Amino acid sequence: MSDAAVLRLAKAAGILVDWEDATGGARRVSIGNLRAILSGLGFGCESAGQCDDSIIRLETEASDHCRIIDAGARLVGLSGRGLLHFEDGRTLDLDLDDAPVVTETGYHELDWAGGVLPVIVAPQRGQSVPTAGPRPWGLSVQIYSLVGDGAFGDFRALADFAVHATRVGADAVMLSPVHALFTTDPGRYSPYSPSSRSFLNPWYGDPGGVPPLPSTGDLIDWPAAVAAKLTAFRQAYARAGSDPAFLDYVAHADNALTQHALFDALYAHFFTSIGARGWQAWPAEFRQPGSSAVAAFAREQAEAIDFHMFLQWRAEAGMAEAAQAAAGMRIGLVGDIAVGIDAGGSHAWARGDELMLGISIGAPPDAFQAAGQNWGITSFSPAALRAKAYRPFLDLLRGAMRYAGGVRIDHALGLRRLWLVPNGASPLDGAYLCQPEADLLRLIALESERNATIVIGEDLGVVPPGLREMQAERGLLGMRVLPFERDKGGDFRPPRNWDVASVAMTSTHDLPPVAGWWKGRDIMWRETLGAAGERIAERSDRALDRTRLWQACCAAGVAQGPEPAAETPAPAVDAAIGLVAKAASALAIVPIEDLVGLDEAPNLPGTVNEHPNWRRRLPASAEALFARQDVAGRVARIAEERET
């Protein structure tokens, strides 16, 4: 077959055959890699005829399943007369040949000669950051790191943290994802590789009664801790499984929740019996949720399924209590939507037709990862989203906003394009797949306004031209992180020059805290792990960067005197927090690691077991931490700078 047929199909599917790498160099995806990606997306491409059939399928899927427009825009491309049914029950007779203007936002339906067409009308912008009073600020924290009654922090510990953060004037508490992981497989504890983004991680629920396991040491032993927590939950279920409130919860559960609980019960069964860590490794008759074998399992294991429903019930109650504890803040909890999900998880098993199951997503080669990245997760298929009138994406947004005053969208660059890697291939063999960015941003703006939830787009990495501006127009805040806020010469930007439409941060969970950066802990880790690169040069560059940062802090009026030594980072932490608080950004967020002056990052990208990712505990309870003199001083500095 000719390469031209593959190229036509790739273009129709939204694959960028030609792209620009992090250095500005022109790249072109090979025909072989295009075939692998197209096959992974489910498009036949072994012959010219298959390519043509796949293009026809794409054109059919792209036809009108819904219309998403801005308020005040015209409804174009339709003819005849139509009756527009507004969400509130009103109707309006329209002459579609005149391309009528629709001004009222919401989810409406148009009854016309072509059938019933959903018409979604979005505001130009979503919810804004509060502007009355001092400029808002908040803290970020890993829930599991909180010191409470058990081996790791949970929603009860989060509620306690929110109470103390409110007392010191914080307006927000930013979290990593709380999506459902693999409940009975505690070796899979990364919050960014969930089984489902539609449900909560039950490990964070409160079983009540005796604490499952006391916290010991600096690191969490997830297998031991989760085993103890599940034992406590089984005891709680034995006591409260007949609670009328729980029975009512089960009675009103939708099919998605029921299937998730069924999946968790099946996963526990096959993980224990044959070591399967995903539905693809189950016996064939259990790989389809509608099979007779699955139905028989559901009848025989009704109590096991009921137990997993109980876990979700307790998790929802705990999350609601944490949200209520943060209700005194101007923003409240800021949740996080992971960019993807594990293809062996609940969502992929129950609703795989919404996903790209034949590929993984990741990142192309850049200055930090020369070999690119394969994150081992997948996400929504753009074609499926259009065919389903974006219902899966809307359900995801609404679930994330249910308990939150803000939502962070992980890898928001993926709203425009995602780097796809064929299963089993190298990230170097990937390609970008375009996403329906305009439609997704309109939906985000509408749900943000409806739920009074601010939205933060994590726009770090190889940022396509115009993406930040387009997201800012819709009201999304970008992320501006201190180590990256430099001019072309490498000097740190003055705080007055930071983007207003952004969240200013000293660090993130993937970067060393300021103290660790100042001391070079990240360089030490790369040296320990034998990572590629020249450590002597890195240390020399870091010494120069310390001087640059200290000079920037002195120039901004948040530091004075001689530069602190690398081994005494506390003054640099104070200064960095002051600089970020002073930034022109609409919101400032300081990780708890920086507020406390810790030097180790929660996560080291590119590692799994080599670094203790997602296992570090904070050194004391929230009450004890906020009572510390150095913490109180940093809080006072933040409040002072945000007043101006």
Notes on the protein architecture:
This protein has 644 residues and is α/β, with parallel strands linked by helices. Among the domains are: 3-61, no CATH class; 72-122, no CATH class; 160-329, no CATH class; 506-601 and 616-644, no CATH class. Helix content is 39%, strand content 16%. The protein has an eight-stranded parallel β-sheet with strand order 21-18-15-12-11-24-23-22. A five-stranded antiparallel β-sheet has the order 1-20-19-16-17. Helix 18 packs parallel to helix 21. It is globular, with a radius of gyration of 25 Å. The chain starts with a helix and ends with a helix.
Outline the biggest β-sheet.
8 strands, parallel
Task: Tell how many strands the DSSP assignment holds.
Answer: 24
In DSSP terms, counting alpha (H) and pi (I) runs of 4 or more, how many helices?
Answer: 21
- Terminal Cα separation, in Å? 66 Å
Radius of gyration: 25 Å
